[in-house]
Design brief:
alpha+beta, Arc Repressor Mutant, subunit A, transcription, sequence-specific DNA binding, Transcriptional regulator, AsnC family, 6 helices, DNA-binding, about 150 residues, about 40% helix, 2 domains, Alpha-Beta Plaits
Length: about 150
């Protein structure tokens, strides 16, 4: 637009996360959840659409959420104190189902779900390129014997 580089801030990331959860949420509900005005939410959505960050909205059917054909757990070692930033980035990815902080060898465990192995590979590569990821290990989930859902 004016030649400036566009960078999303925390409000933009939280807004996108809220829209991923419920793209039909009202401006009032989004504003309340984000702690900003309806005007701010409307302006942010419009700006994100104009900049090409939001390219559309879709419908998610119950069957789509029941189970991803390809699922995995990605364990991440994070260098320095970038865990909060990396978790925000992870939570902004549509393939990320959950993020968990942990103790021991790994700092964060990420649940990832995709339709194909190729898409899982792309997501894993994208995550590995995040600034601050020191090392990672991924395990594919082959079968679920018991689930909380």
């Amino acid at each position: 637009m004016n030649g400036k580089t566009f960078e999303m801030d925390d409000i933009d990331r939280k807004l996108i996360s809220a829209l991923r959860h419920d793209a039909r949420a009202s401006l009032s509900d989004l504003a309340l959840g984000l702690g900003v005005s309806r005007t701010t939410v409307r302006g942010r959505i419009e700006r994100l659409r104009q900049r090409g960050e939001i390219v559309g909205f879709s419908v998610v059917l119950r069957g789509d959420t029941a189970r991803d054909p390809v699922r995995g757990l990605m364990m991440l070692g994070i260098e320095g104190r970038g865990a909060d930033r990396i978790i925000r980035q992870l939570n902004g990815l549509s393939a990320v189902r959950a993020t968990h902080t942990t103790n021991g060898r790994w700092d964060v465990i990420v649940e990832v779900g995709t339709p194909t192995l190729e898409e899982l590979d792309q997501v894993l590569g994208q995550i590995r390129r995040f600034d601050g990821i020191a090392h990672s290990e991924t395990s594919l989930l082959l079968n679920t014997r018991k689930s909380g859902s």
